Structure formats: structure tokens, C-alpha cells
Amino acid sequence: MLTVSTVNVNGLRAAARKGYLEWLAATPADVVCLQEVRAEPGQLAEEVRSPEGWHVAHAHSEVKGRNGVAVLTRQAPGAVRVGFGAPEFERSGRYVEVELPSVVVASLYLPSGDAGTPRQDEKERFMAAFLPYLVELREKAAADGREVVVCGDWNIAHREADLKAWRTNRNSAGFLPSERAWLSQVYSSGYVDVVRALHPDVEGPYTWWSYRGKAFDNDSGWRIDLVCATEGIAARATSAVVERAATYAERWSDHAPVTVGFDWPAGVDPAQS
């Protein structure tokens, strides 16, 4: 009854030229979360900025050409929030959430980091500020009778099964012990990795492959695009699919959309259904 899709578009203007608009026209999703839009709304063509049949909440970065997230919904959201209250990241284009009658859906682009550099320090600061907000969001939504779904590019592979070359990436950003421990804290705070819950014993399914070499052809990827949901709605997830392109040439991003279906009312409070 509720289908949510998330994808890092790796530049929305480029993705629109390569096949994003055709994918959007065909998707059954009720909600689509985008990351790495890399454009202000005014820089996007009308059919990309405000596609027919969708309500769009944009959050662009104050640094031009960087970051940017969006949430597209079939029905008008009741409220939109940009940022999560951390001054350093308020205008960084990394978080936007919308309220629907039975669920809050957010699009997240967590910093990628770079081990041993200031970029990793930034990532650590983001994580330290974001976890308390996730707890607050879950509690507030529960008080309002809603569940929460946080979609996006989390830029962390949680387990060895979440990246092909885990042995050679043990000291790499995205698979550091501190990052993995932080994601474990997210899951112990009332959120569920929906794809892993539905596919507990598989390698991947990977969601990002480098454009370099034969990473895509060899399926040497990372599972870093996650749909994390509070326990009530996570328990009613019925399907989770990574929409991997059939061939390298058909890719319109270096990430693939992750689409999750929930047995959950898309437009009304489940208590009233």
C-alpha cells in the first residue's frame, strides 16, 4: 500500500539526460527520495524540478554544485523540514523530511568522509549530531501516531556482507569500525535496516559501484543506500528490491534505486483504516 524508493542521482541534471525521468515516470513509488541533486531548484528544468503528478521538497546546499536532497510525494505533505537542527549542517543540503498522514519520510545524504582527514572529522560530527535527532524524531512521530522512514545514501557499509571487497577496505571511510558501531547504535535506537531484514543471508544486494574499472560488471559494490524504518512499519515491509541496471550502458547514476513496499496505508492514519 505504501512504496518508497531512494536513489543517489549523482547530479540530477545529468541523471535527467541519461534516464532518470523515464525511471520516474515508470516507478510505482508513492514517495521518492533523492540525494546528491547538486543543483538549486532554479537550475533545474521544469519537468525535473516539478514533475507532473508529484509534490517536491528540495533542500539544496549553500555550496553550489554540492550535495542536495529532495523528497517527491504523490500527495501533498502536511509539513516539510529542512535540516535537523545542527547549525553546521543546516544549509548543507543533506537532510529533508516530509510529514504524511501515517508516516514521516526523510531523505538523507550522510557525508562520505575520508579516513584520517578533516572530511572524516566532519562525518563524525554529523553522525554525533544526527543520532540524537533520530531518537527525537522517532519519539515525536510516535506521539503523533506516525512511523518514520529515513531513506538515503548513508555512506556506511554495516557488515562484511555489505561490500564485496571488505578485506581491503577495513581502514577505509565507509567501513571503519567507528562508523559501523555508530550504525549499530542507530539500529538499537528503534530503527530497522529494512532491506537486510528481508534479505538477511545474502551478499549485498549492492547499491553503489564505482565507475572505475569493471566494478559494475563484476558486481564489486557497496550497500550504502539504506531504507531505515521504525519498528512498527518495518515489520510490515513486504518487498525490497535494488533496481540494478541491466547493463553498464543503461546506468543513469553510479547508484541504483532501492525500492521498498510496505503493507501500510499511504494516505491515511492506519488506526483509522
UniProtKB/TrEMBL annotation:
GO molecular function annotations of the record: double-stranded DNA 3'-5' DNA exonuclease activity
Gene3D superfamilies reported for this sequence: Endonuclease/exonuclease/phosphatase
Cofactor(s) needed: Mg(2+)
Top EC class for this record: hydrolase
Superkingdom assignment: Bacteria
Alphabetically ordered keywords of this record: Hydrolase, Magnesium, Metal-binding
Enzyme Commission number, as recorded: 3.1.11.2
Domain Endonuclease/exonuclease/phosphatase residues, every copy: 6-255
Family affiliation: Belongs to the DNA repair enzymes AP/ExoA family.
Stated name of the protein: Exodeoxyribonuclease-3
Organism: Saccharothrix algeriensis
